[in-house]
Amino acid sequence: MRKILVGASFAMAAVLLTGCGAEEPAKDGKAKGPAAEATGTPKESGGNGDGEGTPHEVTIEVKGSGASTVMYTLDDSDFEQITLPWKETATIAARGAEREVGRLVILTPGHMTLPDGKLGAAQCSITVDGKKVVESDEGSGKPCSYKLK
After folding, report:
1. DSSP SS3 for 11
2. What is the pLDDT of residues 45-86, one digit of tens each?
3. Which terminal CB of the chain, N or C, has fewer other CB atoms within 10 Å?
4. Which residues fall within 8 angstroms of residue 16, CB to CB, at 6 or more apart?
5. Span 90-117, average pLDDT
6. CA-CA distance, 88 to 60, in Å (whole number)?
7. pTM of the complete model beyond 0.85
8. 3-class secondary structure, 15
9. What is the DSSP string of 63-104?
């Protein structure tokens, strides 16, 4: 297995090194070829490169008390140790193909001690532009998710 990984690493390095050089400038001083065509405004991956959709202020929140963990996808994905209650806000917009199919916001709270003394999932919610769009039941164990369009 190690030989395969080392071989794949060398092959990937060779491909990257051979594709990185620019063409020599022509007599008119302008470069020709793929490297010259790559200049300009980069396009977003996964779409047609026409920019972003409408920005939205998204707030994810976990209620409760004590310490817990949380895994979320907002403007980035992250996994954190947190102190409850906890809240994170970001302004995000759909990019590329996400404008067509939507951008998924996910919040998965960890476990905490519930008021009845049992261990259960913390309650989570997602708010978009000031309107609460998703709220889980305390102890349900279900993550909060919302498709932003």
Report:
1. helix
2. 333 445 678 899 999 999 988 889 999 998 888 999 999 999
3. N
4. none
5. 88
6. 5
7. no
8. helix
9. EEEEEEEEEEESSSEEEEEEEEEEEEEEEE--BTTHHHH-EE
Q: Residue 117 gets which letter from DSSP?
A: S
Taking the C-alpha atoms of residue 87 and residue 68, their distance in angstroms, rounded to an integer, is 13
Structure tokens at 73: 């996808």
pLDDT tens digits, residue range 3-27? Answer: 554 445 545 544 444 444 444 444 5
Q: Are 126 and 133 in contact (CB under 8 A)?
A: yes
CA angle 119, 123, 128 (to 5 degrees): 160
Burial label, 105 (beta-carbon count in 10 A; 0-12, 13-18, 19+): buried
Where helices occur in 19-68 by DSSP H, the ranges are 34-37
Q: Are 74 and 88 in contact (CB under 8 A)?
A: yes
148 C-beta neighbours (distance < 10 Å), count: 19
